[in-house]
Amino acid sequence: MASKSFKGSRSSLSISSDAAESRKPPISPTVTFGRRTSSGRYVSYSRDDLDSELGSTDFMNYTVHIPPTPDNQPMDPSISQKVEEQYVSNSLFTGGFNSVTRAHLMDKVIESEANHPQMAGAKGSSCAVPGCDAKVMSDERGADILPCECDFKICRDCYIDAVKSGGGICPGCKEPYKNTDLDETAVDNNPRPLPLPPPVTMSKMERRLSIMKSTKSALMRSQTGDFDHNRWLFETRGTYGYGNAIWPKDGNIGNGNDDEVAEPTELMSKPWRPLTRKLKIPAAILSPYRLLIFVRIVVLGLFLAWRVKHPNNDAIWLWGMSVVCELWFAFSWLLDQLPKLCPINRATDRNVLKDKFETPTLNNPTGKSDLPGIDIFVSTADPEKEPPLVTANTILSILAADYPVEKLACYVSDDGGALLTFEAMAEAASFANTWVPFCRKHDIEPRNPESYFNLKRDPYKNKVKPDFVKDRRRVKREYDEFKVRINSLPDSIRRRSDAFHAREEIKAMKLQRQNREEEPVEAVKIPKATWMADGTHWPGTWLNPSAEHSRGDHAGIIQVMLKPPSDEPLHGTAEDSLIDLTDIDIRLPLLVYVSREKRPGYDHNKKAGAMNALVRASAIMSNGPFILNLDCDHYIYNSQAMREGMCFMMDRGGDRLCYVQFPQRFEGIDPSDRYANNNTVFFDVNMRALDGLMGPVYVGTGCLFRRVALYGFDPPRSKEHHSGCCSCCFFGRKKHSSMAHNSEENRALRMGDSDDEEMNLSLLPKRFGNSTFLIDSIPVAEFQGRPLADHPAVKNGRPPGALTIPRDLLDASTVAEAISVISCWYEDKTEWGQRVGWIYGSVTEDVVTGYRMHNRGWKSVYCVTKRDAFRGTAPINLTDRLHQVLRWATGSVEIFFSRNNALLASPRMKFLQRIAYLNVGIYPFTSIFLIVYCFLPALSLFSGQFIVQTLNVTFLTYLLIITVTLCLLAVLEIKWSGIELEEWWRNEQFWLIGGTSAHLAAVLQGLLKVIAGIEISFTLTSKSAGDDVDDEFADLYIVKWTSLMIPPITIMMVNLIAIAVGFSRTIYSVIPQWSRLLGGVFFSFWVLAHLYPFAKGLMGRRGRTPTIVFVWSGLVAITISLLWVAINPPSNTNQIGGSFQFP
């Protein structure tokens, strides 16, 4: 039963990062081949008898667990022959800390039939030659190619062996093949490109082993020392140089004469066209805007100086509080306003992108896409608060995006490990077989089916194909059925689990009766498991949690829902689907379900930990040089969005961009946007302004990352931009003359260190972990993410046509390695979360992650597209909105008290950018002064005093100028940003609502964490709608009590009572002080006007608040005011009223 083993060419699953352990040979990853019986026991099988050629060849120790066959008989030998091919798309990979990595071959993933050749669960044929585990030759549609009339199933390698060395005899019928010249495209479909092909003299099995060893190893470091792919890629100037593209003169490639280089005539003859351009704000708007900022700063300074010099001696306590608050408000306004001095707009040219990357050229004769790959991350954690239908629609919009199919990969992180999310994903992959080709055929926008079928506009506008109406009706019916299946999944899973559980109990009872024939039978207690569609236990979280199957305790899971597409387009036919798909590409991008391992006692770091797990798993499986992360409720609204972002990344200087941030746009917001959910002032004013500095902050979703920037490397040419920074070269290069001439080569992948020593390769596991798969993928991702070197001015470029080669196929060891890097222990003693990937330690990990990149010298850009790139949902309920703001503000307080404070930023960060990040950490503290200031008008009315001695002309003039300049600045911001005045006012209102509620609580929680070490826990923001299906905005009117409402309610009540008291006091005074009353009443109304949306939210649905409530409120206010006058009457009062005096 012992399998043969060999020293794997892959990385080890676990190697100690200690110096002593690092010298030990790596341990090969083990995956188990076997069959799981109905009792849950795994039966292993040896591969010794599969092929005699294995006797003299080292082989990896693989074990794969296969589900029980229907008849529960010993495994048919043919099953082991098709394991490797069905491994990726038909196997559920599980594993983790101190456990065997298992691949559970699934008969079916969902109840319905999988009908797409890429879909998980799609049946495949195996080679019938004994000892062969390869797939049968097939066309791109999955149909078998059978070269003999006897229909003997044979794979490509076996067929070539039979033709060349077997005399052309069919192994099945022993008759000669009648046609040994099969179509090359048929025989060679799904080729495996090898950078170093094995010798021709090798046997079939040796070639297969060579393929297994070298798959995914292109351009990776060789462990045997025979060939160093990194040196070949990054240190050879045979065909191109490291950094600027260098071509040999006269086309003499590899002639050893590296000094004679020239530019290709094709590039010199064509004018270079940029992919993006800056659109400056008109000087007629920007110049007055900057002038007004300067004027307001001067006026504020003079006003505060006047306030300090003219105290109110009658109420020094009132004056002191007001001056302190005004000083802080001025400081806070400066922090917010100064980064807005340099706003810009940007535009892209997708036509140029197409010409450069998808048009036939000398370097790319076929016109195949030369665009880099993109890995898209979708994160979800709780199917109850994040409905699976919402997540499924987001996935469908990704699969239908207008980007080269073979360059896309979608990874869904299910941090809850729920079978409901798993099967919803599988249903989405199945429906994508119809939806994605339909979108491509009719150019559908948006490509989220729920949003598309609910469009208010005419769906037939600009549609010219005669079969559109018929196709749309059929797809709509399919989508309705798809929604019903998704909605019924919870009940379906529950009923299935109950049925299997009852069967297991009956089996246990029978077994107990057999063992105890005469003894009384006791009730058998069996853990109630959650069962998958193929009749096996779900390895994730069960509906009834138990040990190793709960939300915080389950194995790591990876399931390839849609295997990687073929390299060439696969056109449909009229019979392929419900609609005619002739000449329509029916391929689908790679889709992978990932649920990282969770165990008790480990800090899993919430969303940031889940995103880092996806970064590592995707680096192993697809290694796209760019990463787009989306929340589960943010879908692609503009199918061209990724091309828009790629224009920035592929433009000249794009290699210094760490990410492209898209604005967040929302659906389902009430027309009045009562609680400023659209955040238009932030996304259209602040973010555009930051784009004129080092770039916008990262806001958590809708962001296109450069992978190597997430890895913690410095940007290229970092020392040219700042010579005083200590950096280290990634490759630990030797300082010799042959490399000294190319400074760019020495700066490609650098990571800043506290010392000035070069990075040693032995330190890399301490940074990135023990997976050499992961480490070897880093330079490949860096190279593929470079801009195109199509002009001498493009620095750090790559040669045209370098990314037109097919992607390597997935195999068992690749997915097994991906399982290992999502285990709960992998990040121990590494820099993941501290310096690499998403940064831990804050509930707003997004802002911290972006800050770290800017701190290393990277830049970012803000991409505002004509058609919204992404759209999502936002909580319109007041309580949910306050909790959302609380989470953001708490993260900002954590940032302020951490080493991520902008005061500690490196010299690489620009001054105004540093101020912007400082404002991010300071703004919650404004709530302390804001609450005091909101009570000042009431205190003024209660005491009969004011913040100044008298309302003289100087005070009113300053107040007028400050107010007018603020209004003019708002008007100019509206002009250059394109927002509306109502949106600006809503933002001002919610600034006060949030500042007096959530921000104050955030400051208190942050101080508790810093001082007492009390951790902060937050619940997910619910993405589900209200219960009232007839009202789209039913959730807006639901009043859910929270303690965050106490401060604003108190402020409103106190100010209302104070107004009544002030009027009563003035009326009953002998000498009424109308000036003080008007001052206090004006500021009280200013407070109440800002809190109006909050008060409206407390009233519930419009029209449902009884009139008697308002009547009683007025009576109570009048009664309290009269009682105040009765208890504390004005002195020397002989009459009511007095003479009216206006100041």
Walk me through what this model shows.
Helix content is 40%, strand content 9%. The protein is α/β, with parallel strands linked by helices. Strands 1, 2, 3, 4, 5, 10, 11, 12, 13, 14, 16, 18 and 21 form a 13-stranded mixed beta sheet that branches. The chain has a three-stranded mixed beta sheet with strand order 15-22-17. Helix 12 links the parallel strand 10 (374-380) and strand 11 (408-414). Helix 32 (1046-1068) packs across helix 35. The longest helix is centred in the middle third of the chain and has 48 residues, at 468-515. It is globular, with a radius of gyration of 34 Å. Residues 1-35 are annotated as: Disordered. It is a multi-pass membrane protein. This is Cellulose synthase-like protein D3. The chain crosses the membrane at residues 283-304, 316-335, 916-939, 951-972, 1049-1071, 1077-1095, 1107-1127.
List the helices and strands and how they pair.
Elements: H1 19-22, E1 31-36, E2 42-44, E3 62-66, H2 77-81, H3 83-90, E4 91-96, E5 99-105, H4 156-164, H5 184-187, H6 204-214, H7 229-234, E6 247-248, E7 261-262, H8 265-269, E8 276-280, H9 283-309, H10 316-337, E9 344-348, H11 350-357, E10 374-380, H12 388-399, E11 408-414, H13 419-442, H14 449-453, H15 468-515, E12 556-562, E13 590-595, H16 606-621, E14 626-631, E15 635-636, H17 641-649, E16 657-661, E17 665-667, H18 680-691, E18 703-706, H19 707-710, H20 718-721, E19 727-729, H21 737-740, E20 750-752, H22 764-768, H23 772-784, H24 812-821, H25 845-855, E21 859-862, E22 870-873, H26 878-896, H27 911-922, H28 926-943, H29 953-977, H30 981-995, H31 998-1012, H32 1046-1068, H33 1074-1090, H34 1092-1098, H35 1107-1127
Parallel strand pairs: 1-3, 1-5, 10-11, 10-14, 11-13, 16-21, 17-22
Antiparallel strand pairs: 1-2, 4-5, 4-12, 6-7, 8-9, 12-13, 14-18, 15-22, 16-18, 19-20
Helix pairs in contact: 9-10, 9-29, 10-28, 12-13, 13-15, 16-24, 26-27, 26-31, 28-32, 28-33, 32-33, 32-35
InterPro entries: Cellulose_synth (IPR005150), Nucleotide-diphossugar_trans (IPR029044), Znf_RING/FYVE/PHD (IPR013083)
Keywords: Cell wall biogenesis/degradation, Glycosyltransferase, Membrane, Transferase, Transmembrane, Transmembrane helix
Transmembrane segments: 283-304, 316-335, 916-939, 951-972, 1049-1071, 1077-1095, 1107-1127
